[in-house]
Amino acid sequence: MRTRTTTRKAAVVAAVAATLALTACSPEAPAEETTTQAPESGGDEMDMDMDAAGLMPMSTGDPFADARTAAQHMPETALTLATGLAAATGTEGDVASAAADLRSDLTALLQEHVYLAGMTVATAYTAGVDSPEVEAAAATLDANSVDLSKAIGSLAGAENEEAFLELWRAHVGWFVDYAVAVKTGDQAGKDAALANLQGYTVDAGAFFEQVSAGNLPAAAISESLGMHITTLSAAIDALAAGDTTAYAKLQDASEHVAMAASTIAGGFDAALDLEGDPADPASTLRAGLTQLLQEHVYLAGISVFTAYTAEAGVESPAFAAAAGELDANSVALSEAVGSLAGPEKADDFLALWREHIGFFVDYAVAAAGEDTEGTTSALEALDGYRPAAGAFFDEVSGGELPADAVAEELGHHVETLAGAIDSLKAALVG
Asked: Domain limits of the chain?
């Protein structure tokens, strides 16, 4: 484990831990399955064949849209957990207020932007800029842009929604220009892309100041977006160079935009006097869980992508680096659990969580090798993990998180992430 793990995740874990106490928590009903909002991927029918374990991996054949489907389930899980935890601990605030909704939604969408951008660039470097795989990745990235514009439009009106989407798509395009220029050694193209991105920070700063009635000052937004450009371009540089620090740098970029989400939510709250407070402990709890749980899915997807594209597969340094970021996320989640149930239970959770990640790796390896027996065995292991994890949460919550409810939530997680792995295998391995 890298020594930077604790400091890199400290802000997120502290935000979660600050609202938790050693007490029971009470869940909502299991969240309903979310569905991807990405554009259609070419008419492939969803594979809903029942497997031997009783789970149904959900795959459309588009690995990027499927990864997004798996990730979109996690904010719902975060809301379920945060609702119970806040009620049980008497946490100040409201996890389901309009302000809390906004902060959580922006956290999910902005973090997703970074990971989908990274996946798109990595795919371009692997399959070629003009490949069908890049087209699919870019379509899913654009679906995120559309959803982000809708979130802004719900606060600032349809006209501003369109203006934001135009601005945001332009900055995505300049990141693509930057990625191509870096990979081809085109210094002039790289400089031009960076100049365009810097100009974007000024235009976007003016936009947010105007739509927030001055509560989001242009200079502050421009500075924040400048850091977004710095962190994401550093990740792109590392991807272009084949540097294994790319995964850590991508995660750093995602952490920055999660902090930006809090700032933007606060500005709109001040401008519109939304119900609730995006900075209260309950909202902070929900946003922190949203960030960690959604990140788990994207880092798992990136790890599988790397295993399928790196020359030495799961034995490669690239996979080790990607898996290291995924494990850092697992440690952060265990620290959040430990703040609720104590260090010993944190260790128990981490062992369980790491085990389920190992089963997903087993599934991915077996899928790549056309090993039907292996995929069935991995799914059976994941199916067995669900009641074990359910029993854990039932115990540490004094029965306020029923084992069956937790197991059902984890069933959705297994089905959607296994489906994304199936799609990655089909697209990258054949």
From this structure: 1-92+282-430, 94-279
